[in-house]
Specification:
Number of helices: 3
CATH topology of the largest domain: Helix Hairpins
Strand order of the largest sheet: 1-2
Radius of gyration: 20 Å
Protein name: Small ribosomal subunit protein uS14c
CATH architecture of the largest domain: Orthogonal Bundle
Family: Belongs to the universal ribosomal protein uS14 family.
Largest sheet: 2 strands, antiparallel
Structural class: mainly alpha
Subcellular location: Plastid, Chloroplast
Pfam family, one: Ribosomal_S14
InterPro entries: Ribosomal_uS14 (IPR001209), Ribosomal_uS14_bac/plastid (IPR023036), Ribosomal_uS14_CS (IPR018271)
Helix content: 40-55%
CATH class of the largest domain: Mainly Alpha
């Protein structure tokens, strides 16, 4: 299980990304549309003044149960360990052990 601090840090990042998403997208669009170099540099400065953690690149997928960052399955939002246990217990609808 991951540290509680790591899980909280990740949720804080998710909140910041959602909060600044529209502002970040509009600044990037303005940078693309502007042809003047001075204006582009000014817009880049504004973009750099946003918090670091408001960038979606800094997010990391974590298991919703354990907070484990590795072995993450996007479709379920779970790590491989929890996915296996829940599938064996029948807690995931539509998931069954393969047989051939």
């Amino acid at each position: 299980m991951a540290n509680k601090a790591m899980i909280q840090r990740e949720t804080k990042r998710q909140r910041l990304v959602m909060k600044y998403a529209t502002k970040r997208a509009s600044l990037k669009e303005q940078i693309r549309q502007t042809s003047s170099l001075r204006e582009k540099l000014a817009l880049h400065r504004k973009l750099q003044q946003l918090p670091k953690n408001s960038s979606a690149v800094r997010l990391h997928n974590r298991c919703t149960v354990t907070g484990r960052p590795k072995g993450y399955y996007r479709d379920f939002g779970l790590s491989r360990h929890v996915l296996r246990e829940m599938a064996h217990e029948g807690l995931l609808p539509g998931v069954q052990k393969s047989s051939w």
